[in-house]
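Final paragraph of the annual report: two paired records, presented back to back.
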Amino acid sequence: MIESELKLKPSKKMKANFKLSDPIQCLALGFGSGLAPKAPGTFGTLAAIPLFLLMSPLSAMNYLIAVLIISLVGIYICGYAAKAGGVHDHPAIVWDEFAGYFITMFMVPVSWQSILVGFILFRIFDIFKPWPISYLDKNCHGGFGIMIDDIVAGLAALGIMHLIF
């Protein structure tokens, strides 16, 4: 059994015990990418790229269905991991970054340029959290709260992606 105690910036004092041996926690932690000691959300988004490439040949309808399932199941996955770790919206929980990035890339032509621009745009919206993302981040709780700000960040990045591409 692999167990990891994460220590973040002393100012946040957010300690959590996650078990990668638990399949649900493993998903929530982005297959371990969220355990990166610095910038776990960025590493989680990077880990989403290979999965995006596997999903990219899907028809628009099938891709949309997959993203809806990933997002809805993510509410449970993220809520479960937060409860198991004892910390709401711990930075190591990155399944929401997967969903947000997949939303960002919906119906965007696949190229290394679009993958890079989508990555950068999604990270900007996720890190800086302009309104209404910041409102949702502060006022929604549980698995839904963990997911919704990244879903909206993905939608904002998606809008810009369609303007660019």
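The closing record of the year follows.
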Amino acid sequence: MSDVSTSKPKAKVASIPPSTDMPKFEIPRFEIPKFEMPKMEVPAAFREFAEKSVTQAKDNWEKMKAASEEASDLIEDSYATASKGAADYGLKLIETSRANTNAMFDYAAQLLSVKSVSEAVELSTSHLRKQFEALNGQIKDLSALAQKVTTDTVEPIKESVTSAFKKVA
């Protein structure tokens, strides 16, 4: 058995446009009442206090502005010193690497020309001794340069902070 539906197709209902005749609501307008301020005399002591406060605030503002400009200049100088020091340190590292690489190539060339095992051992021992001494010297130089850069960078900041504390005390 089959169920056959005998429903009729539904007719489409036309949409009804919204009515344009709807009332519009407006916020009621009220006038702000006008109050007259009472005329009163400000005491001279209060006026003087207000004027002193304004003058003191201006003076403090000028001091803060000068201090912040000084701190900004100090930071800029320290940054420039640190940047130059880092560049110098990087150049020193490159110079050290170049010297070590050249020493290694020289050693490899000499090692290829040895005629006996004992000569190779003697050459290796000599090379290791030279490289160890060179490495110690390079480490001392790099450490001294790093210390100099750090001191040059931090010293102006240290002096500025010390002088600031002396001014406050």
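The chain has a mean pLDDT of 84. This concludes the annual technical report; the extension proposal builds directly on these records.
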